[in-house]
Amino acid sequence: MQPQEATGVQYSRWNENNQDQVSVNTSTTDAPAWRRVYNLLCTGKLGIAMKVAGGLALFWIIFIIGYVTGYYVHKCKQQ
Questions:
Q1: What is the Cα–Cα distance from 12 to 5, expressed in whole angstroms?
Q2: Is 23 in contact with 9 (CB distance < 8 Å)?
Q3: CB atoms within 10 A of CB 16
Q4: How far apart are CA 21 and CA 13, in angstroms?
Q5: If exposure means fewest CB atoms within 10 Å of the residue's CB, which of 64, 66, 68, 74 is most exposed?
Q6: What is the largest distance, in Å, between two alpha-carbon atoms of the chain?
Q7: C-alpha gyration radius of the chain
Q8: Cα first-last separation, the chain
Q9: For residue 54, what are the CA distances in angstroms to 7, 10, 25, 27, 29?
Q10: 3-state secondary structure labels for all residues of 43-57
Q11: How far apart are CA 8 and CA 4, in angstroms?
């Protein structure tokens, strides 16, 4: 029998119910720092809130750039 590791995938084909069984064990302690930050900020309810806030910020930035550009493109020449 092989020792089980803290992380990884364990596949057991032979069990009592004669069904395949897949167990996935994950641990965040071995994950790189960027992955922990991604999991914190980009998943779950906080992730949804961050995406909404980012979308609104991007909308306003594009709106302001378009407004300023349009102002200077369509500015009437003064004599």
A1: 15
A2: yes
A3: 5
A4: 6
A5: 74
A6: 92
A7: 26
A8: 91
A9: 33, 38, 32, 29, 28
A10: CHHHHHHHHHHHHHH
A11: 9
Q: Could you tell me the two tokens for 71?
A: 């102002």
Alpha-carbon gap, residue 77 to 18, rounded angstroms: 83
Tokens of 55: 């979308």
Two tokens at 8?
Answer: 């990884």
Per-residue pLDDT of the chain (79 residues), as tens digits, is 455 555 566 655 565 666 666 666 666 567 788 888 888 888 899 999 999 999 999 999 999 999 999 998 988 776 6
Token pair of 49 as six digits: 């809130």
- Residue entry with tokens 């806030």: 53
| Residue at token pair 């596949």 | 11
Which tokens belong to 73? Answer: 């493109």
